[in-house]
Amino acid sequence: MAKTLPKTDVVIVGVGWAGGIIASELTKKGLSVVGLERGKERKTEDYFMVHDELRYALRYEMMQDLSKETITFRSNEGVRALPMRQYGSFLIGDGLGGAGVHWNGQTYRFLPYDFEIRSKTIEKYGKGKIPPEMTIQDWGITYDELEPYYDQFEKMAGIAGEENPLGGKRSGPYPLSPMKQTEGIKLFMDATKRMKLNPYMMPSANLPEAYTNPDGIERAGCQYCGYCERFGCEYGAKADPVVTVIPVANGTGKFQIRTHSDVRRILHKGGKATGVMYVDVTTGEEIVQPADIVVVTSYVFNNVRLLLMSQLGKPYDPASGSGVVGKNYAYQVIKGAAVGFFDDKQFNTYAGAGSLGASIDDYNGDNFDHSSLNFIHGGVVSLSQTGARPIQSNRVPSGTAGWGKDFKAQSIHYANRTLAVGTQGASMAYKHHFLDLDPTYKDAYGDPLMRITFDFEEQDRELAKYLSERCSEIVKEMGASKVDFLKELGPYEIMSYQSTHNTGGVIMGGDPSNSAVNNYSQMWDADNVFVIGASSFPQNGGYNPTDTVGALAYRAAEGILKYREKGGMLV
User: What's the CATH number for 3-566?
Assistant: First the structure.
C-alpha cells in the first residue's frame, strides 16, 4: 500500500528548465512546492575538468537509461513499432536540470508567424496551400503576448546576442552583447551580406562575460572550451536550471527536491487533480504526494505518457481526428546541410561554445515568398562553432575512401579546413503523426512505453532540398574549394542524430476540441493541472525550442498564481 505524505501547495513533475522556473517563481511568492525528479542530484562541481568525450558524448552519461525505459517507434500505422535500444536521432536527458544541463545554449525566439501559422498562411496563400492531412494550428497566443515572458527568460539566463533584423519586435535588447566572432563566423557574415541577406550573431546562453541576473545569481564567463552539448558546464557559464533558477527556489526555504522519484500517475477525481503517485527508486516504495496544484514539466514523451497512463484528457484518435493528448507530434527536418572544404584556409574549430555562431532568417518562417514552392515555412540557417571534439570530428570530401591511405591523407589535410553551414527546418504537424501508448512493450513497472508514429513528408523533402541548396550557395560564397550538401531527404530513421527537438502531444490552443491546454498551459480537462514544455507546441518552428519553453514557463507561473487566487479556467 502506498504511503501518503502531507499535502503541499504545488507538486512539480520533472525539475528541468520549466520545473525550475515554476519552482523559483512560486516559492518567491510564498507557495510550498515539492519537485519530483526521477534522476539524480546534480551540481557544477560534478563537471570540474571532465572533458571526456567518450563518456559523455558517445556513451551518453547524462541521458535516460534505455535499458529501463525507452520509446518505441514506427514510420506508419501499418508496421509494428520497435523499441529504441540505443541512442540515435535524439537524446532524452535524465537527472536534476534535465536536458537544460546538456544543451548547447542556442536561444532563439520563435517568429510571430509561428504562433499564427494557419491563419497567416491561409490569409496570404489561401487554404489550398495547406495539404488536407496537415494539422497545423494557431497557438492561441501571439508573439506580442508572449514577448514579455521571452524577455524575462533571457534576463534570467543572461542571453548574449543582437537583434534579429527579421525577427519579432523586442521590448528591450539582450542583457549581454554577442560572443566573439571567429574567422569562420566572419566569413559567414561577410558572405551573407554580399548576398544581400541579413546575418546576426546567434543568441547565446553561454555568457561572454561575468553576469549577475535579476535574482542576484552570479555566473562566470565562457572559456570557449567546446564542451557544451552533451556536457555540463564546469564554469557555470552556460545557463542551466541547476545554476540559475533552482538555487533561487532553494533559497526561499519553500522548495523541496526529491530526486530518484519516478512519477507514475497523476491522481484525480471529479475533474480535479488530487496529487501524484510516485516510486522512490532507491527503495521501490510507492508514495502519494497530495497537492492543490499539479504541474507537469518533464520531457515531451514523459508529459504525454503520464497523462495517458493517468487517463487525464482525451487520447488522440488519428482515424477520426478526435481527442487531443498525443496529437500533433513533430520533430525537426534537418540539422546539417552543407560542408565546405577550404584548401587555402585553416580554422581553429576545436575551440568553441554551444551557441557560438551566426545566423540568417531570410529562409525562415514566411520571410520569403512561398507562392511557387511546394512547402510552407523554412528554417534558420547558421554557421555555428560548437567545438570540433576529436573523436566525432573527421570530415572528408564525398568520394573519399572510407579507409586506407587516401582516407588518412584527406583526414589530416582537412582536419582544420572545414566549415559547415546548417539549418533547422520547421516540422509541420500531420494527422497521422502522433504519440500513444504501445500495446506490446512495457517498462520496468509493467506500464506501456510511449510509441511514436512519424515519418518525413513531401513537405519536409521539399523544404530540406530548398534549404540545403541555400546553404551550399553560402558556403561557395565563403570561398570553399569543395562543397558537399544534402541532395535529397530520405525516410526518417531513428538511428542518426539530428536534434533533441521533439514537440507536441499536449498542444496549446484556444479551443478545447483541438488542444489540451490553454495559453497559460492549463489543462482544459482539469483546471488545477498545468503541463509545460515543448509538448505544448502545435507544430515545430525553424529554431531550437528552449527560449519558447522558458517563456511559456514564466507565463504559466503567472497563471498558476492567478489560479491560486481565484480558481477556474484562466483567460
Answer: 3.50.50.60
- E strand residue ranges, 165-227: 200-201, 211-212, 218-219
Q: Cell for 435?
A: 504519440
Q: What's the rounded Cα separation, in Å, for the pair 182 and 184?
A: 5
Q: Tell which residue, 212, 224, 219, has the closest CA to residue 240.
A: 219
Relative to beta strand 8-13, strand 285-296 is parallel
The residue behind cell 522548495 is 255
Active site includes 501?
Answer: yes
pLDDT at 482 over 90: yes
Alpha-carbon distances of 109 from 143, 244, 310, 382, 517, rounded to whole Å: 9, 20, 33, 15, 21
Residues 6+ apart with CB under 8 A from 343: 417, 481, 482
Task: Please count the CA atoms within 13 angstroms of the CA of 129 that sit on its side-chain side.
Answer: 21
8-state DSSP, 69: S
Q: Are strands 285-296 and 336-341 parallel, antiparallel or unpaired?
A: unpaired
From the candidates 268, 377, 433, 501, give the one annotated as an active-site residue. Answer: 501
What is the pTM for the complete model shown?
0.97
- Specify the 3-state DSSP secondary structure of 510: coil
Pairing of strands 448-453, 434-442: antiparallel
3-state percent breakdown (helix, strand, coil) of the chain, nearest 5: 25, 25, 50
Q: Which residue has the cell 528548465?
A: 17
With a CB cutoff of 8 Å and minimum separation 6, the contacts of 503 are 300, 329, 330, 331, 427, 534, 535, 537, 539, 540, 545
Chain segment 35-58, per-residue pLDDT in tens: 999 999 998 888 887 899 999 999
Cβ distance 337 to 362 under 8 Å?
no
Task: Decide: 355 and 179 in contact? Cβ < 8 Å.
Answer: yes
CA dist list (Å): 122 to 127, 374, 431, 570: 5, 15, 18, 29
- Torsion sign across C-alpha atoms 509, 511, 514, 516: positive
Q: Regarding beta strands 379-384 and 418-425, do their DSSP bridges make them parallel or antiparallel, or are they unpaired?
A: antiparallel
For 332, what's the count of Cα atoms within 13 Å in the CB-facing half-sphere? 24
Span 510-569, pLDDT tens digits = 999 999 999 999 999 999 999 999 999 999 999 999 999 999 999 999 999 999 999 999
Q: Position of cell 523554412?
A: 378
Q: 35 exposed, middle or buried (CB, 10 Å; 0-12, 13-18, 19+)?
A: buried
Q: Tell me, what DSSP letter sits at residue 129?
A: G
- Grid coordinates representing 446 are 509493467
